[in-house]
Each structure stands twice: as structure tokens, then as C-alpha cells.
Amino acid sequence: SYVLTQPPPMSVAPGKTATITCGGNNIGDKNVHWYQQKPGQAPVVVIYFDSDRPSGIPERFSGSNSGNTATLTISRVEAGDEADYYCQVWDSSGDHPVFGGGTKLTVL
Amino acid sequence: EVQLVESGGGLVQPGGSLRLSCATSGFTLTTYQINWVRQAPGKGLEWVSYISSDGSAMYYADSVKGRFTISRDIAKKSVYLQMNSLRAEDTAIYYCARRRNGNNPLDHWGQGTLVTVSS
Fold it and tell me: How many CB atoms sit inside 10 A of residue A82's CB?
């Protein structure tokens, strides 16, 4: 089965840039979606189809995908960005979603 | 407004059963797949099951295959997850989430319902 690998917890100072990666075999050939999950809340899509932003998501959130790595970038990080972030693709048959293990982002 | 609202969670003994419900509103159920995704305490997201938009196909994670059954009632705009032979490792928050056909994201999620399997 397809495996997505995310980095361990990370911390970033307010105003700086957070970069969260998602590794997978030829993930550049897949569509990657990113979710933000704050404590006690359901996940919310912040990036879909590698780099598109849903309405209501700040422009500070961006995404890219190439080769074996997809990346979520959060510019000018704010305290409200503190959350767990998950990447997700659909398996080759399209039957079910595959999630990365998640990365906890702490804003110092 | 799109809404998905889960219910039916609770405390159950190992080997017991529960039926979760996902009540939907604000969209046409026959246009979207509905997925169940769970999250064990302090852990990540794990897909459990989905039912296709036309209701003809149901899929399950290997960890629940043969024990869980997904179904839906179009008239009630609801999707259900019947969970039998529950184990301690099934303890989690269970979310329902919708997805338009294709490689689309799970674009709307419910708030989740907690299932605790313990004696």
C-alpha cells in the first residue's frame, strides 16, 4: 500500500515561514491535499490538488508537488496556525484515501 | 450550508456493537461519496470505509473488514456505520466526510462522535 511520510513535530516563530513536507514514491504523479486540524476540531482542507486554496484560506498557505515530495508552506506564521497538518492522496485504485502521519506545528 | 452531523457514539464493551449515523444537509447525497475516517486518541487519521455516490459500492479498511458495514438512507439523507465485534483498538473519534467523485479532497467533515471500547 502507498505510504506518505511526514516530518516530526516542528516549531516556528511568528512571522517566519513553516515548511511541511510529505514524502511518497512518485508523489508528483498524484494529487495531494492538505488538511489542518486544530485541537478538538475536525480537519479542514487548506490546500487541494497540490496548490489550490479553498475560499477562506489565507494566501499565506501554499503548496507544491514534484518528484517524491509534496510541500505545504505557511508564510508569515501566526499563532492561529498552530495545528496538526496532514497530507492525503487517493490510492491507485481511487478506492480510499491515504493519509500521512501528520505534523504538529507549534508557534513559539 | 453544507453540514454533516455524526451521532451514535458511546461506551461499549469489547465484542459489542454500535451504529453510527451521519446526518447530512445542504447538498445532494447522491452526488457525493461519504467516507468514515477515525482518529484514535492522540493519533493520526485513519480511513475506515466509504460508500459511493450511487450507493452501489462500499469499501472497507482491512482493519474493519467483516466487522463494519456502511449503508445509507437517501430519504433520511443519512449514512450509517454498523460496527460489530468491537475491539479496544476501535476506540476513536469517528468522522464522516464527503468527497465529490474523482481525486477530490474530503471537503466537508462532521464534528465527530467518540466511540470507546472498554470493559
Answer: 17
**Could you give the count of Cα atoms lying within 13 Å of B105 in the half-sphere of its Cβ?**
25
For residue B84, CA distances in Å to A93, B17, B18, B19, B50 come to 27, 4, 7, 9, 17
Q: Write the residue in B35, B103, B109 that is nearest to A94 by C-beta.
A: B103
Averaged pLDDT in 10-residue chunks for chain A of 108 residues: 95 97 96 97 98 96 98 97 97 86 97
> Searching chain B, which residue's CA lies closest to the CA of residue A34?
B105
Confidence of residue B82 (pLDDT cuts 50, 70, 90): very high
Q: Which residues of chain B neighbour A88 with C-beta distances below 8 Å?
A: 45, 105-106
pLDDT value of residue B102? 86
